[in-house]
Amino acid sequence: MERIECQVDADPSKVDFKWSFSNTADRHYNVSFTSAGLRSVATYTPRSARDYGTLYCWGKNSVGEQQMPCIFTIIPLGPPETLQNCTSANVTMHSVTITCVRGPVQDSDLKYNLEMFMFLSTEMMYYTSSPRPNFVITNLNPGTDYLFAVYAVNHNGKSSPVMVRVKTLDTPPTEGRGTCSNFLW
């Protein structure tokens, strides 16, 4: 249920309100609301695709009716936007940092997930979640090709994943130091 507030400036301040709803298929005045003084609050719950559209609110006092209504567009929220510019950094033999840029739309329950796979494998090896699209992954194997799927999640679903391929550094070469012992018998 959404609470939508309509406030007007009026003198005299005794104001009566009316609300209406409209979309491409329907228009009606069946909107539940309460009013007090210069403010009216509608309670509106979209239940199907037909419930999305525009709410209008007008105030009226003894001088006259508001010429242009307050307009509120009710749109369905969808899954979050796909992350942008996901890159790997600080690649070592055993760790990597994956960082992405989040979209401009932020909501309170947005979180970011990372799934790790061996390259060319469908078996997930690791999963983590974060309030920011930044991840440090450790305990990786040297010289191994990994694929990371990074995506945003909210209560309406998840974004398309962004894939980041990373190969950890190979083990460092060992220096060829040997010892030679001459034994005299």
From TrEMBL:
Origin superkingdom: Eukaryota
Chain ranges of the Fibronectin type-III domain: 79-174
Residue ranges of domain Ig-like in the record: 1-57
Pfam short name (any one): fn3
InterPro entries named in the record: FN3_dom, FN3_sf, Ig-like_dom, Ig-like_dom_sf, Ig-like_fold
UniProt name for this protein: Ig-like domain-containing protein
Species of origin: Trichonephila inaurata madagascariensis
